[in-house]
Amino acid sequence: MIRYTFPKDMRLSSKKEIDKLFLEGNTFVSGPFRVFYSLYKPEQPVSSSSQAVPSSSQPVPSSSQATPSSRQPISSSCRIAFSVSKKRLKSAVQRNKVKRRLREAFRLQYPHVLKQVLEQSNHVLLLLCIYLPHEIKPWDYTEKKMGILLSYFSDICQKNIESALDSDR
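Structure (tokenized):
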């Protein structure tokens, strides 16, 4: 059964990761979004469960001491953040409404379009979507554009799988 969830481990909230996306990530404009993304293969495998369970035999390092190699296994293959500029939409109520719609569109389409492909390719996708229009677009428009965006990343991951298979031959 497909689970339509958007757990905390799928939220991109680390300032370091967001800054790294701006500096080193790729970017493009698609529909109402400016997208910053990074697709990489992690050192540790992505766990298939939605929660990372720390082992009881080893102490968990604090966030100030954690290095990428000493962290717990990555528990989600996609981490995403949404941003709506105050310059584009003045009202906080409108900005929050747009972000809720974007999260909902992502939550509903991610399991169908992108999840299996990311798990097959064993890649991690970091996404930051910045909403560009000066007005709130209708729900069906937002949902359609989110589906297009996720299918674009699905195609990228599929090409990575195919190129990995070709290099193994």
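The chain has one domain: 8-48+73-168. The radius of gyration is 17 Å.
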